[in-house]
Structure formats: C-alpha cells, structure tokens
Design goal:
The complex is a heterotrimer of chains A (533), B (811) and C (99). Helices cover 63% and strands 3% of the residues of chain B. Chain B is mostly helical and 811 residues long. Chain C is elongated and about 50 Å long. Classes of the chains: A mainly alpha (533), B mainly alpha (811), C mainly alpha (99).
Chain lengths: 533, 811, 99
Amino acid sequence: MDFLNDWGLTLVTFLPLAGALVMMAIPKEEEKVLKQAALLTSLATLAAGIWLLVEFDYDRAGSLQYVVDKNWIEVIGSGYTLGLDGMSLPLLALTVLVMPLVFIYSWDHIPSPGNAKAFLALMLILETGMIGTFVAQDLILFFVFFEVVLLPMFFMIAVWGGEDRRYASLKFFLYTMFGSALMLLGFLALFFLSKDPVTGELLRTFDMRVLTDAAGAGIVRSSQLLIFGGMFLGFGVKVPLFPFHTWLPDAHTQAPTQGSVILAAVLLKLGTYGFIRIAIPMLPEAAEAWAPWIGLFAVIGIIYGALGCLAQTDMKRLIAFSSVAHMGFVMLGIATLTDFGINAAIFGMVAHGLITGMLFFIAGSVKERYHTLEIKRLGGMLLQAPRLGWILGFTSMASLGLPGLAGFWGEFPAILAAYQPANGIPEETFRGYMVVAAIGTVLAAGYLLWLLQRTAMGEPSEEFANDPHITDVNRFEWIAWSPILFLIVLFGVAPGLIFDVTDPAVVESLNNCLQLPDGCEGVAAATTAMFGG
Amino acid sequence: MLSLFALESVSEVSTVVQDANWFLEHAWIIPLLPAISFVLILFFGKRLPKKGAEIGITAVAVSFLLAVVTGWAWLDHRDNVVFDGGHSESVVVDDGHGSDDGYGTDDGHSGDATADEEHAIVVDDGTTNGDDRVSLAVAAAETGGKTEAHPYVAVQQTTQWFQSGGVEFGAGILVDGLSVMMLFVVTLISLLVHIYSTDYVGGDRRYTHFFAFLSLFTASMLFFVLSDNILQMIVGWELVGVCSFALIGHWWEEKPNSDAALKAFITNRVGDVGLLVGMITLFFAAGGGTTFDTVSINEQVVQGNVSHTALVVAAAALTAAVMSKSGQFILHTWLPDAMAGPTPVSALIHAATMVVAGIFMVARLYPVFFEGMSIGGSSINLLSTVGAVTLVGAGLLAFVQDDIKKVLAYSTVSQLGYMAMALGVGAWTAAVFHLFTHAFFKANLFLGSGSVAHAVHSFDMKKDMGGMKKYMPRTFWTFLIGSVALAGLPPLAGFWSKDEILVGTGGWGLFGGTGGNGAYTFHLSMGMIGAALTAAYMTRCMYLTFFGEWRGGHGHDDHGHDSHDAHDAHGHHGEPHESGPRILVPLYVLSGFSILVGLVNLPPGLFSGSAKSPASWQERFLHYMEPAGSSYFPAVAHGTPSWSLAIVSTAIAVLGIGMAFWYYFVRVDRLSKQTGQSLTGLPNGLTSRNRLAKAGHTLLVNKYYLDHLYTGIIAGFTKGRLARAAYWVNQNVLDRTVNVAGETAVRAGRVVYERIDQGVVDGLVNSAGRVSDSTGQELRKINSGQVQNYAALMFAGAAVLAGAFIILFAL
Amino acid sequence: MLLNQFLLLAAALFCIGVYGVLVRRSAMLVLMSIELILNAVNINLVAFGALTDDVGGSVFALFTIAVAAAEVGIGLAIVLLMYRNRRSIDLAQVDLLKG
C-alpha cells in the first residue's frame, strides 16, 4: 500500500514509456515479439491502473490521493506533483483501458507502410503523455505531458496516415501548438500574478493544488479574463470547440484507425479536462464571465457538427464531425459551471471516448474490408457482415444518446443542467441553449441513422456483392471490441459508477469558488472567509 | 440530502404507500422477465429448437399471469387498503433510501410512529398497525353507494439509482390503477402477438431477432408504465422508440422499410425535444431541481406551488412529445408509414401499446396538463384541439387508403386523437378507458388484417382482396366484431368509451346531461363527426376486403413491397384459405375482449335502481383507475351521461355506416355487376366529376402534403442545402481561414526569407565575404613568394611607420 | 662627441645591407648583406653604450655577434640545401611562399 501510495501513479505513468524503451532494443524484424511487448506493457499498465482503482478510497473521492510531491525544477517552483481524484480517475481508467484494446486491434491491423516497432512504440509514448496529463498536479508538468502527446500523434498521422496525411498532420500539430502557446502564457501569468488569498503574498508556484485554492485571488479581473482567454484557446482547440475544430476532421480522416480511436477516445478529453481541472477552478470569476460564450460556442458546435455530419460522404469524416457535436454537449455541461453539469461533462467524456472510439474501430474495419469509406458505395453490411452491421447499429444508438446506453448520461444531464446554470450566469441564455441542444439530439438521430441506413441496410451494392474479402467480425476485433460494448451498456445501466466517483471531486473543485445553484450558505460563508470578508 | 424545498412541501399527506400486497410491491418483476428473455434470446435464441420464440412466449406468459395477479391485488388494495398517511415523506427524495420492503431505514419507523396519529382518516377496523396495512375486513365502500370510504392510495417503491450534483436519481415503480391496467393490456396483447407471430413470421430469416425485439419492447413498455419518476419515463419512452425502429425496419433490405423506420425514429425525436424540455422544466419548476418523482411533482402542481408559466411551457412542450409518440397532427405522419413493419408489430406497438405512451404520459402527469392547459372551466386548449383535429383529419385520410393496414393506421391516429381530446377536455377516465378498449379491438383488427394478408400475400384491398368472407369466415367474424367495436355501436367496447369521451366534453349542455370541466362544444362536434367517419371508413374497409368478388389470384409476382409477409407462403397458390389456430386463437380472444370490456365502466344512472344492475357494477373502471381524491391528481369534474347523447352519437355512427353501406354495398356492388368489371375498373364517380371533391381527394391522397413538407422540404433542406451550406461554411470559411492563415504565414515566410533574410541580412554577410575575397584576390598578387619582395615591403612599412612616428613625435 | 659619425656610418652600412638584401639575387650575397645590417646595428649599440657609459651596449653587441654567427651557420646550411636541391642559389627562383 505504501508502495502504491508513493509510486503508484509514477508507475502507471511511466510504465508505457519504459515499455517503449524496451521495444527499442528488440530488432525490427521480430514483429510478433514487438507486438507482444507492446501489448504486455499496456496490459501491465492496465493492471497497475486497476490496482490504483481498487485501492482508491472512494469515500474521499473529492481529495487527491496517491499524491507524489517532489522537487523538480526548484528555480521556478515547479514540482513533480502527481495525484488522482474523482475527476481524473474515470479518464485515467478510460485511457488504460482503451490502449490495450488498441494494441489487440493492432495485432493484425498494422497500417501501411508497416514498421510495427515504431508504430507501437509511439503509441506507448502517447499513453505516457495521456496518463501523465490526467495525473499531473503541477502546471509545468501538466504542460509537458500535454505536449508530449502531440509528437507521437503527429508521427502517427504523418507516417501511417491516408493520402493527405502531410497536410493533416501538420495542421493538427501547428493548430494545437498554437493553442498550447497561449495556454502556456496563461500558466505563466498565473505563476507571476497569483497571490495567497489570506496573506496576500505572491505565490510564485505552479502547484495546481495551491493555485486552485487561491482561485485567482489577487489577480485583477481584466487579467483574469485574458488569462482565461489564453487557456480557452489552448484547451478549446484541443476539445475541439467550434470554431477551432477544423483540424479534427482532417486529422481523424487521415489518421490510421488506431490513431483515430486514441484521438477520439482520449486525446480530445485533454482539452475538456483542462477546463475542469485548471481553467475553471483557478479562475472562477473569469469562468463565470466566459461561460455564456463557451455555452454559445458549445451549442453552435452541437448544431453545426450535426449539420456537418449530414453533408459528409465519407464515413470516417462523418464520425469525426460527430465528435464536434458530442463535445459540444460536454462543453455545454461545463459552461453551466454547476456540479451537475460538470459531472455530466465528465460522463460525456467517458461515454464519447467509448462510443466514438468504437465507431472509429468499426470504420477502420469497414475500410479494411471494402477499401473505401465512401458511404455511397457501401450498403447491405447487415447482409454481408451481419455482426459488424449490428455492432454499428448498436453503437449508433449509443451515440445518439439512447437511454440505457452510456451516451444518454452525458447528453441528457448536460441539457438538464443548462436549465439552471450557476449563479451569476444568465439563465435565459442558457435555457435557449438548452432548447438548441435538445434540437441537436434530433439531428444526431438523423445523421447516425441515415448513416446506418445507407451503410448497413438495404442490399449490398453490385461492386461488393460477391467480394470474398467482406467477412464478419474476426477474433481480434471481438476481443478488442467486446469490453467497449460491455462498458457502453454497463455505464448506461449503472451511471452511478461514474457519477459517484466524480461528484465529490467536482463539488470540491467548485466549492472553492462558486456558489452552487441552491445558493448553499455554507459555501458562501466559506467563500467570504477565504477572501477575507 | 434534504433540500429546503422538500421540507416546505410536506404540508399535505401524500396518498402513496410503500408497502402493500407482495405482488404490488414486486411489480418490477413483470418488466424484468421480458428483459431477461431479450438477453437470453439474443445470446442463445438461434441454438434453441424454436429459435428463441419459446423463451419470449414463456417470459411474457409469466408476466401476464403476474400482471393478472397484480391486477387482482390492486382491486383488493383499492377497496381495502387502510391508509395511515405515514409515508408522506414519499414526496421527499429521501424516499429513495427505503429498501424494498419499505422498512429498511428510519423512514419506515418514522412512518410507523406517525401511523397512530393519522388513524382518524381511515376506517379503523381494529386490525391496522404498521405492518398490516391491507385490511381483510370488508370496507364500507360498497354499501355507501358512490361515497368512498377509502382514499385512493398508490403503491410506490423507490430505490436510489445514482446521484449527481446533489440530485438523487431514483428508480422505482408506481403502482396504481393506471399502471396496473397498462400492465394487463401490454402483457396480454404482447402474449397474443407472440403466439400469433410464431405462425405469421414463421420461417423468416430473422425470426429470432424478431422475438428478441418483441421481448425488449415488452420489457421497455412495462418499464415505462411502471416508472415512478419522469426520468425513468424518458428512458422507457426512448427505449420503446428504438424497439419500434428496429421492428418497423425488420425487413430493411428494402429501402421503403428502412425509410419508414428512420422516419418513425426521427419524427419521434422531434417530439422528444418537447419531452426533454418539458420534463426538465417540470424537474426544476415542480421538482425543485432535486427530484424527478412523478408523485411529488404532481403533488406540487396540485397544491398550487408551481408557477403557471412554467406549467404552460411544460404542458405545451410535452404536448409536442405526445404529438409525435401518439401520432397527433401534425407529427402523425410516421405512423402510417410504420405499417412497413410486420403486422404483429403493428398490432402490438403501433396500435395497442407504444403509441398510447403519449396518452399514458399525459394521464400520468395529469395535474401538469390540467393546470398548464387550464382545462377546467375552459372551452378550448391546445391538447384537446390537437386531438380533435387529429381525430377528424386522420379519419378523412382513412377513406383514400387502399392498403388495409393504412386504413387501420389512420384509424389508430384518429382514435388516439379521441384520447388526446378526452384528456384535453378533462375526461381523464374516458381517455384511459378508451385507451383500454381501443387496445383490444384495434389489435384485433390489425391481427385480422394480417390474417387476410397472410392468405392473399398482399395488403392491397382493391387489388388483391374482396370476397374474403367466403374463404376466411372465422377471420371475417372477428374482424367484423372489431369493426363494430371501433365504429362505436352498442353494446360493444368502443361505444362505451367513445360515449364517455363525448360526455366528458360537456359541449352543448350534453342534451340534458351535465357538463364536465368546461363547455367544449367544438370538440363534441368534432367527436361526432369523427364517429361518423370511423363508422363509414370501417364499412368501406369491410366491403373492400370481405365482400364482392375476390380480385386477387392473378399471379403472385406483382406483390407490393409488403409482400414479405408472404415469405412463409404455404407452398401452393390458388384460392386463399383460412389461417391456422395460432393466428385464429388470438383473434378469438381479442374479439371476446372487444365485445366485453366496455361493460367494465357502465355509466352511472344506466338502469339505475334495477336489481340486476346494482350501482356497484357501474363505473368500476373509474373507481379502480382514476386516482380522484388522491394527493397527486387534480380535481376534475365528471360529466353526467345522458341517454339523448348516447342515442345521438349512436345514430350518427349508424348514419355513417348507412351512407358507406349505400355507396359500397349497394351502388358500387350494383355498378360492378352491371358493367361486369371489378372494383378497380370502375370510374371514380364523384371525385372525377366534381372539381371540389377532386381537390379534396387529391389533398387526402397526398396526406395533406405533410410528407412533402417533412421529407421533401424540411428533411431535404436540412440534409441537403442546410447541411451542405454548413459544410460549405466549414470548408470555405472556417477551414479556409485556417488554411489562409497557414498559407499567409507561409507566404509571409517566403517574403521574409527571400527579401529580408536572403536579400538584406544574408546579403550583408555575403557581400562582406565577397569584398574580403576580392581584396584578397588583389592582395595575393603581392605575395610573389619572393622573400626579397616581402622584405622590401617590410622595410617600406617600417619606413612609413618610422616616418609616421617622426612626424607624430615631432608634432 | 663622435656619436653622429658613428650613427652615420651605421646608417650607411645599414642602407648598403638593405640594398644588398633587396636587390641581390644570389643568396650568398644576401646573407652577406644581412651581416652588414647586423654590423650596422652593432655599431649603433656600441656607440650608444659608449655615450651612456654603459657596458650593456657592448654586451648586446657581443650577443649580436654570437647570434649572427649562429644565423650565418643556419643561413649557409639553407643555402647549401637550396643549392643541392636546385643547383642554383638564385633567389628569384625561390617562390614557394607565393600566396
């Protein structure tokens, strides 16, 4: 237990990196060994993650656990600080779960031009970056992990991508880098400006815990707004929030299947996680001022992403656009600044990760069988590959927010929360957003079912009618997919599994700064005390 | 967490208890069985000898038995329960902590503690205590005529599902007359449909899937009707929708079928926007932002704690949901298309159960509508008007359909219009009663039409039917019973429920009776017109299907797209023949119900005083179903029926039948015989001569052009122009901006590189180099290699330096 | 004081030496001209030493003579080698230092 407390998070973070280093020593030709090594590493990471999950004290889900606090770069007061609480736990779990599945899928799906060694090693490095981002409790450390993610993804797209991969990868890289730069500026401003709420002294620290407690104390409002704006851009690009989303369809379309899955399942969540972990708790006042705008962009994204989907002729691109819409729901939940809405947002992240990840898996398998993703040319999948077709149907249903499956609990509570946002945020505006978001669910049903109808229903097109390559779901696909399918149902039936974990942490992070909608007096008093009356 | 709201609200005693008869407490088993059956069929169905059908039938049969027992238990509970009011906290979300037996936590004990104080309101027969709520003693209810000694007490079991942000999400069951009635209807019809389907879709390639989805549907519908909170209702509502989608699109190989499925789902989603908005508004306005509990929301509304504006918004939004789910104008268009599904599905989902979900929801949340629509003392409101327009509009459409299922589908829409109208005018019991009776006779008709189609491999009445009376006498008789019940002739089921609705409108002073909640004259007249229309189109349908000469038999290769029902063709062509027992038995059962169920709610005053008809026989349905006087039901007024109204409405129905009979059975029949042509060869008659009639006909054939509006204009625009425009904006504005930004950066870089970097900065460096180079080139000439030259230079230099020094020092 | 005369003599010698170094093509003669220059310097050293009553001047002159002897040794060796390699001691032909 002591080992776990001191080393658990470090272990789970750097295990994949260690695995990647080990893989470096294995000759390129030994593809099978390489695959085994990568899979084993990710499974070990999963085991470590599960161990953390099991030993996690769920009664104290609101506070950080397994905290590691070591000096790192003393000159700038940045530490090697890790910690896990209810907000990061579901996302950590999602990451460690999805990665082994991706490796299993890679067993016989190494995209051209091959070179399994580099491909798998990059994914392991990616895993370290993602896990690190979710557990880092120091802004510089967070930033480092946040950026570590970029490079492997860049190479995955640029090397193993589709025809237009150069453009897509560069766009992805530069766009997110641009956002990150502004975000870093925001972090630096926080470092230089934050003051201790009690003593009024300059803090000069990157420790997220301290900065969260300070909650923007001592920073004048206009600076807060600017700093938040920087972070808004940085995280917003990553989410991606309308209108910063245009890198996403290209990146998704060009990326290899595994890349798309990771991108959808985990990478996009780094942005939303940044909002709820950093931007909002550290700058509550600015968050309140920005909330209507975030909400506006979110609902535009919902409608706009859905319309974009309807216009697509390529299955993968359609799924990519649907991410814009779904992340719009997540952002709407966040924009309410209520514990209820942010819980919904975290649930939405996990659900979207599972569901859209699954959709990308399916798209990858369709591409492999039909060698095209052009919707017009597909059809009758239910006849030729019935299980694949049914899984597509099931996942579409989950994606459009059918109750009983995971998607619903991200979507409905977010809409619900918009009825009554936190104090100080215009209610009427958000009620308008609520209606618009509800209309978005209609469009979601429209594009998903239309996709289902055009690809899975009907008779197979002549082109593929007697194609022997079109086979049903194979063994590796089953192994990789069934956990996801199972979890989609499980979270749909028992949403408490996630809500119970996130709730205390979200309440904790919001309690610092915001009055809850009920106008809970205890919080107000605490706030008064904190700011010295 | 006890919120402030909950503390305020417990001012009145809630008429809900947690503990009651075992069957009432454990009603959740009823939906659970089909749910398990779904999973079992999904995973093991194909390996079983009957391909999974046996699991489905068993599960639903057991559910049905349980539902019957639960129904009995409810009757007993309704009459004999001793209400101690001890569980008034059930409006508080706290209730969720209660364990299944109701005694798990402090709530139970505090309930017991208050029990003794509350005894004043119950008939104390001396046996009551906290553990024995169901008194076995005969209560005084029966002897006192219409006065009720026992209040209406629902049974609620709630357990916490999960919580988020201080809101507890419960899962539970609310068992009262309404849900018990629905349990009975759903399980019975589902069971009959299961049995029927084993023959009807026998041999279908997706036989197992079919049964799996039937099970899932049954489970979802039961889950929906039992739900005790609005969130659970949303869940059930959506789940039945997806089952409907899957079953309409059962034969998805043909595009029209998958189109119909998509249309159904998406149209329902449009209504769901209203559902979400309405439910969310209720959650905050009436649930205080802390509870979804149906009973407490209703209680808040009944007690007047909720702002009228919020209720108006909620009721209007929920009406949109009703319009889509229960096929009300203008969102009804999916329902006729949904006939693309197999006929048993149409009977179960699109006639008897799922489509009444909207009606059920209104009935469940009746205080919201009663207050929000200002039903009491008014003469028009949104819900009732939507219903009235629907019932006439759809009735007219039924006349121009050649497809027998579409006639029935429009008839369903029209009957749902009756129910919505009834709810809109405040006739709660009438609406629910009509829901009840309609389920039986409409399922009967659908299954009957399926039986005919099974024999002729088509649904087209004009082309492939006619004279079926001769070939299928048994189907004919059951169909006739269903038709008469639908047409509303006494004493069959439809008459009683329709008549009650008309009474409930309170229009025109009801020919001597007394009004209901308001003077809904317009609605009464629409109801009358609807009655005539219903009777007339059913007569037309009867004639086209069962009378005249059989027009089919001209080869089986021109089957319409519905001909899938013929997949299980019996292997021989030729004359149609009567269906087998698995199809007929459900028809008999349903015909029996169609005849009898009207009698469960005989109007008061009918045969009053007669020894054969004691008062205790009358209005039994109302007695057991309507939660009048309970804490979660508004104070609706009941119209008193009158003989004159009953006679007039019957006369109108007879008139409708008579006119249709004259036109088809007499005129068309004679014309057909004279010209020797079959029906399809006859001239069109009036519609081809009179321009107005023709215009009307065209309008009807085109279904009021609503489909054009939705499919062509709205959907076409959304997925065509609008989507393309949005995508265009994406590619050409947003993405263009990004690309332009990128390109500009590149171009700027090129300029900087070429002009400044290469030109200026690098130019300086280069020219410096070049200058030194050429200088060197010149200077190297001095380097002759001759030492003496070097020496000379050295001396020259030295001399110059010397000279310079001399000059400097001299100065 | 006879200093000026000594200096003039030295200057004359120096100029002759320089002239020889610069214009003579024979290495031997150049070498000898260098000796003249050195001797001119020696004269200057001794003259200044006598003027200031300092033996330093004479000492330096002696040093210079010794160094000149060594220098001539090395210079002759170079000339000899040059001759061996080229069969000529014409300095005009020696341009290996050309840049």
